DNA sequence: GTGAAAGCGCTAACAC
DNA sequence: GTGTTAGCGCTTTCAC
C-alpha cells in the first residue's frame, strides 16, 4: 500500500532514481511559442482559439511552430481564466452492475460527442458515503454541471436539496416521480408489465426475488410487481442482491416457503439465471412448471436455457439524454430548481418475450 | 444534437432564461475567507495545507469561517501552482466488455485509496483512433501519469514509443512479453492450460472460437490454444466478436467445417454461452458430445447449463497493481524507459473446472 | 507567526 | 492585426 498522503509538501522520498537517458521534459508553454514566433502570447492565443483577426501568414507561422514544438495548451490554465473548462462531473456507483455501466457508457458517448470530458466521482457506499465531500471534489475541478447517477437510497441526496451546488445538477432516476431535474426510467411500470405478462400466460402464483430493497430501483420493481397482483403475501417475497448466486438461493427459499408458486419475477437477469439454474437442478421445468421473467435484457439473456423473457430499458439512451439536458441547462444558465416532476423526462421499458415464460 | 462547439467565444444563445429564485452563486475564493478572517490569503493557505506555523487560535478561526462559507479550494488553481494535481490519466476502450471494466474498477479503487482522481480518455476505435490526440488531452489536464489499458492492436501505441509523453506511462498488457513498463496478464498461458485440460479429459479434436484477432488479447489466446496442440488446421478456427451471438454462430460454423470436433475453446464466457446454447439446440450434449471451455470466469458462468469451465484472471488486481507501480514511478521521478520486460509484472490466470468439460 | 510580492499558463479587455 | 495590462485562484519564495 502506497502512502502518498504525506508527500504533498513536496519533499521527495530518499530513494529517487532518475533514468539517465531521458531528462524530464518541461512542459512547453504559450510563451515559448510566442517567443519562437516573435509575437506576443496574445497572438498565439488567438491562433489557438481560431480567432479571425490574425494575419494569415502569422497564423501559419505560429501553427508551424506549435507543431514543431509539440505544444499542447493546458486545459487547466485555460479553464482558470475562461471560468469554463468543458468538463462534467458524474457521480456513479456499482459500476460492476449492468445498469450503471451502460448508463455511464451513454454519458461518455454524448459527452465526448459534445466535446466535454468527464470527471468521475465514485460513491462506494451509497447508504453512508459523504455526499457533500464527493460533490465538493467534483466542484473543485470546476465541472460545469453534474450528473447524479448513484442509487437513491436513504437520504443520501436529501443533502443535495438543502445545499444545492452552484452548477446545474441532473438526476438519473429509477422512478417516474422524481423531484429534481431528472431523466427517469419507469421501473415500476416495467415490473408491472412483466408481472401482467405472467398472469396472461396463465400463471397464478407469482413469487418475486427482489434486489436490495433499500435501493429505489429495487423498491420500484417490487412495487410494480405488487401492483399487478390483487393481494400479496410475505411468503411470496425473497430479497436477493442482484447476483446469480442470490437468485439460485432465492428460488430455493421461495419454493420452500411458497410451494404453490408457479412463476417468479427475478428483478434482474442474473438472478433470473440463478433461479433457472436452481429450477433445472430441482427438476422443475422452465417454463412448464415454473415461469421466469427477468429485468435488464442483457445481450446474453437470449442464450440462457431457456432464453429469458425480460424487461429491456434504454440505459444508454438515458445517459445520453441526461447529458443533453444538462448541457442545455448549462447553456441557458439554468439552475437546478427544486420540484419539477413534469419537466422531467420519463423513459418506458419494454418487455421482451422469450421462452422462459411461454409454454411451447 | 447539441452544437456546443460554436459557443466557446462566450456569446450565449438567445433563449437564455434564468430561474429567478436562485441567483448564480459565485465561487467562493481564498480571498474571501482571508478577508472575513482578517488575515492574508497566505495564512489561509497555510491552514488549508496543514502547515504547522499558524497560531492555534488563528487556525481555528479560519477553519470556522471556511466551514461557514462552505469554501472549497480549487483543485485547478492549486494544481497550476503546485505543478501537481494528484490525478492520473487512464486510456480505456470497450468498457462494455468484462475485462476492461473490471480493470477500471481496480484502477479506480487503488487510485481513490491513494487520494488520486482519474481522467478517462476513451478510445473509440482502437485500430484507428488518433492516439496522440488522446494523450494530449490527458496531458492538458496535467495528469501525473498515464495508465494505458486499451488493446494493443496494430501499431496504435508504437506512436507511444516514438513520442514518449513527459509523464510516466504504464501499460496494461495481455501478453507476458510486453515492451513498455507493464503489468501483464499471461493470456497465452491461460489459454494453453484450458486447452490442455480438454486434452486431459480425453477430448481429441478441439476447435476454437476466437475474439477479433487483430487484438493482442485474442491473438494471445489463440496462440495458447495452438501451442497445446500438435498441429492445427484452418477448419478448427472460427473468429467471433466476444458476443454470445457470435459464439452461437461460431459453433454452428465449426460443426459444419470440422464435424469430428468434440470440444471447443471459446475465448470468452459469453461466446461459450452462445456455443453451449447452439449445442443444446442441435441436440449435442455438453460435455458428453462436446466439451466447452470459456475464458473470464464471470460470476454468472457458474450458473450456465451446464456450469462453465473457464479461465479466471485477476483483472481488478491487475488494475490496482498498475496504479501502485505508476505511483511509484511518479514518486521516484522515473520515466518510462523503453524495454524492460523483466521488470514488468506478469500475472497468471487460473483454470476453474466445472461441468461443461468434465463428463459426470 | 504572519504578510507582500511574484508567478503558475492562459485569456479578456482594452489599447494602438 | 497585434501588443499591453490585468487577473483567474492559489502557492511559493522571502521578508518581517
- The strands making up the biggest β-sheet of chain A line up spatially as 2-1-3-4-5-11
Residue-averaged pLDDT of chain A, rounded? 87
CATH class of the largest domain in chain A: Alpha Beta
Distance between the termini of chain A: 57 Å
Relative helix content of chain A:
25-40%
Strand content of chain A: 5-15%
So, CATH architecture of the largest domain in chain A? 3-Layer(aba) Sandwich
Q: Tell me about the largest β-sheet of chain A.
A: 6 strands, parallel
Which pair of protein chains has the largest interface, and what are the residue counts?
A-B, 86 and 86 residues
| Structural domain tally of chain A | 3
CATH homologous superfamily annotation of the largest domain in chain A: Response regulator
- What's the β-strand tally of chain A? 12
Which class do the helix and strand fractions of chain A yield? alpha/beta
Q: Looking at CATH, which topology of the largest domain in chain A would you report? A: Rossmann fold
Can you write the helix and strand succession of chain A as a string? Answer: HHHHEHEHEHEEHEHEHEHEEHEE
> Cα-atom Rg of chain A, whole angstroms?
27 Å
Key terms:
360 residues; alpha/beta; 434 Repressor (Amino-terminal Domain); Rossmann fold; DNA-binding
What do these coordinates show?
- Two copies of one chain form a homodimer.
- With 360 residues, the first copy, chain A, is an alpha/beta fold.
- Chain A has three domains: 80 residues, 434 Repressor (Amino-terminal Domain) (Orthogonal Bundle), CATH 1.10.260.40; 133 residues, Rossmann fold, CATH 3.40.50; 131 residues, Response regulator (Rossmann fold), CATH 3.40.50.2300.
- Helix content of chain A is 39%, strand content 13%.
- Chain A has twelve helices and twelve strands.
- In chain A, the strands form three sheets. Chain A has a six-stranded parallel β-sheet, with helices on both faces. In chain A, strands 7-6-8-9 form a four-stranded parallel β-sheet, sandwiched between helices. A two-stranded antiparallel sheet of chain A has the order 10-12.
- In chain A, helix 7 links the parallel strand 3 and strand 4.
- In chain A, helix 5 crosses helix 12.
- The first copy, chain A, is elongated.
- The relative contact order of chain A is 0.12.
- The interface between A and B is large, with 86 and 86 residues.
- The structure holds a DNA duplex (16 and 16 nucleotides).
Amino acid at each position: 500500500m502506497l502512502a502518498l498522503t504525506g508527500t504533498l509538501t513536496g519533499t521527495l522520498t530518499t530513494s529517487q532514481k532518475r533514468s539517465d537517458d531521458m531528462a524530464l521534459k518541461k512542459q512547453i508553454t504559450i510563451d515559448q511559442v510566442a517567443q519562437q514566433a516573435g509575437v506576443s502570447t496574445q497572438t498565439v492565443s488567438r491562433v489557438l482559439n481560431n480567432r479571425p483577426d490574425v494575419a494569415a501568414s502569422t497564423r501559419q507561422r505560429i501553427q508551424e511552430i506549435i507543431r514543431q514544438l509539440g505544444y499542447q495548451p493546458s486545459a487547466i490554465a485555460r479553464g482558470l481564466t475562461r471560468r469554463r473548462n468543458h468538463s462534467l462531473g458524474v457521480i456513479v456507483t456499482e459500476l460492476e452492475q449492468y445498469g450503471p455501466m451502460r448508463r455511464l457508457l451513454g454519458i461518455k458517448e454524448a459527452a465526448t460527442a459534445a466535446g466535454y470530458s468527464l470527471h468521475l466521482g465514485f460513491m462506494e457506499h451509497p447508504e453512508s458515503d459523504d455526499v457533500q465531500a464527493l460533490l465538493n471534489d467534483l466542484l473543485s475541478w470546476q465541472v460545469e454541471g453534474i450528473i447524479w447517477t448513484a442509487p437513491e437510497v436513504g437520504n443520501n441526496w436529501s443533502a443535495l436539496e438543502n445545499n444545492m451546488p452552484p452548477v446545474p445538477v441532473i438526476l438519473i432516476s429509477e422512478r417516474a416521480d422524481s423531484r429534481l431535474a431528472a431523466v427517469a426510467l419507469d421501473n415500476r411500470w416495467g415490473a408491472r408489465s412483466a408481472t401482467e405478462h405472467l398472469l396472461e400466460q396463465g400463471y397464478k402464483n407469482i413469487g418475486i426475488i427482489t434486489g436490495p430493497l433499500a435501493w429505489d430501483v429495487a423498491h420500484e420493481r417490487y412495487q410494480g410487481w405488487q401492483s399487478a397482483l390483487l393481494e400479496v403475501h410475505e411468503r411470496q417475497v425473497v430479497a436477493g442482491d442482484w447476483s446469480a448466486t442470490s437468485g439460485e438461493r432465492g428460488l430455493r427459499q421461495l419454493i420452500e416457503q411458497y410451494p404453490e408458486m408457479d412463476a417468479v419475477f427475478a428483478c434482474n437477469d442474473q438472478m433470473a439465471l440463478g433461479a433457472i439454474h436452481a429450477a433445472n437442478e430441482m427438476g422443475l421445468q422452465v417454463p412448464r412448471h415454473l415461469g421466469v421473467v427477468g429485468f435488464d435484457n442483457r445481450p446474453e439473456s437470449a442464450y440462457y436455457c431457456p432464453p429469458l423473457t425480460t424487461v429491456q430499458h434504454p440505459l444508454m439512451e438515458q445517459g445520453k439524454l441526461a447529458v443533453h439536458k444538462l448541457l442545455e441547462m448549462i447553456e441557458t444558465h439554468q439552475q437546478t430548481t427544486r420540484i419539477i416532476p413534469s419537466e422531467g423526462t420519463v423513459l418506458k421499458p419494454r418487455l421482451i418475450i422469450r421462452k422462459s415464460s411461454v409454454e411451447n
